[in-house]
Give the backbone structure.
Amino acid sequence: MVKIPDPIIQFIETQGIFVVGTISGNKFVNVSPRIFFHVDEDVIYWLDFFKHKSYKNMQVNPLVTVSVFNKDELKGYQFRGIVSFITDEPVKSEIKNLIIDKVLKSNSSPKLKSLSEKEVNVIQFEPRVCYSLNPEEYSNLSIGSDVDSEYFFQK
């Protein structure tokens, strides 16, 4: 797994949204946004309230891409890794409640509140490689890999 440095964790948290890319068994790509998430140093958790395309794709193919971007700074990151479903209680409930509390604390939208009360799947994403999406740095080079993450995250 790739260790996600604190500045990148802060960047993801500040954006408040990222996009998940999955691939179906028929090789069709699906991209969907996520706002219910939590980032640790070597894993990203998110909540999946719907059992639609992404959910079905992850069941068939656990290889997933996560991208986060700031359009004003032209800065962002892409992670490629593997997902799994957290089913063990009380771990599932603990992660779910942590994420919901965090999101609802910063956004009191009635729509989000309603969504947060639905049954949910907890997804665990383990990044294996990280790329910068900043067009001026690290062009086409991995800036983090599970081979030696400390080396790749240094400038």
